[in-house]
Amino acid sequence: MLDGIRIIDFTNYLPGPYATMRLAELGAEVIKIEPVKGDPARELGVKKDDTGIVFLANNRQKKSITLNLKEIEGRERALQLIKTADAVLESFRPGVMKKLGLDYERVITHKDDIVYCSLTGYGNAGTFSHLGGHDINFMAVSGVLSQLKDEYGKLVHPSIQIADYMGGMAASERILAGLVSKRLTGKGSYHCISIAETVASIMGIHLLIEQETGDQTGIKEINGKFVSYAIYETKDLRYVTLGAIETKFWFNFCQALGRDDWMNAHFSKAEMNNPVYMQVSDLFRSRNLAEWIEFGKKVDCCLSPVLEPNELQSFEPFNEKEIIFKTHTGSLSVKMHGDQKQNGASSPSLGEHTEEILSKASE
Question: Which InterPro entries does this entry report, sorted A to Z (predicted)?
Fold first, then answer.
């Protein structure tokens, strides 16, 4: 889809690289500009073949070149590359690209139709714009973290970076919008994405419900308060999710189990003093996860297993489309776009394409 589109990527760690990987897997040529020592994610945490997993997971199908942007020569080469590009994504703190002479105002004097996107924590202006931040901070200020609580009301620390991934998706979306606008008008554009604002954008329903009722836990029918839409433990101490919010799904569930007497309890509370809830809970604990998986495949009642990461590859819907695949280097990866073919490309080694790209840029 994006064959012929060139994107210059000045990002590190997770949100920015995730954004450009989504574009790369749609066919864009993504040139990742790395410092001489490389994206810090190459050295972060668990490693495979001496390279950080965080880097390997978010930089497939890109080209890597190394430039020292603190030196004039490095900045000039970066500008040379931008002249050949359709879009730029950067994720430095506000003001850094200006100090380097690579901010939007400077860039458009060399490439006036560039689509330029800055991916930030809190935007490029305002009280918090100068502050550092990470996923957990953006989750916190957006109100989203407040929704992740256990049965005692204690916050649950997420083990996946929801805000970072959402920020990356928002950046790729905005770049695509900029490219469409450029096609229609012939003009480039500047975009600034705030990860905190992006995550807050999913709280609209919560805000309106709180305004009308005072309840801050969102849609009551699907927030775990009712027997028909809840998480249940199985015999082998695993979990399944029941999402039978519509009457037909709840009826299918009840009838398949020979419990027509539960039908009128569709929206009864998922509480210990509710006999139906206790009966449903006991029933789920009477069979193991594999049995409930088979039940969910046969009975159309919105019943699905809670899978662990090492089970994704064998999950039939994912297996059929090869959603989980191995790159050419043997690393397990996940498709960004399930309906697109995957060529198995892996993440580049540091500076792998420096000579090739710079030589072409200087021609």
Answer: CoA-transferase_III, CoA-Trfase_fam_III, CoA-Trfase_III_dom3_sf, CoA-Trfase_III_dom_1_sf
Question: Angle 12-312-28 (CA atoms, 0-180°, nearest 5)?
Answer: 40
d(CA 115, CA 236): 52
Looking only at the bridges linking them, the beta strands covering 6-10 and 87-90 are parallel
Domain 6-202+353-361 homologous superfamily, CATH: Crotonobetainyl-coa:carnitine coa-transferase; domain 1 (3.40.50.10540)
Per the confidence metrics, is the pTM higher than 0.85? yes
User: How many whole angstroms separate alpha carbon 84 and alpha carbon 357?
Assistant: 11
Instruction: For residue 362, name the pLDDT band (cuts at 50, 70, 90).
Output: low
Which of 127, 99, 100, 103 has its CA nearest to residue 117?
103
How far is it, in rounded angstroms, from Cα 269 to Cα 271? 5
pLDDT tops 70 at residue 283: yes
Give the mean model confidence (pLDDT) for residues 93-117.
Answer: 96
Angle at 12 between CA 131 and CA 324, to 5 degrees: 125
Q: Which helix or strand (DSSP H or E) is residue 333 part of?
A: strand 332-334
Q: Are strands 115-120 and 87-90 parallel, antiparallel or unpaired?
A: parallel
The first and second tokens of residue 65, run together, are 């070149």
Q: Render pLDDT for 235-249 as a digit per residue (tens, 0 to 9).
A: 999 999 999 999 999
Domains in the chain: boundaries: 6-202+353-361, 239-305
- Tell me the C-alpha distance between 340 and 161, whole Å: 24
Buried b vs exposed e over 187-205: b needs ≥16 C-beta within 10 Å? ebbbbbbbbbbbbbeebee
243 DSSP β-pair partners: 229
Q: Coil, strand or helix: which one is 179?
A: helix
For tokens 């200020």, the residue is: 141
Q: How many residues does the chain have?
A: 363
Contact 161, 170 (CB under 8 A): no
Q: What's the mean pLDDT in 86-97?
A: 96
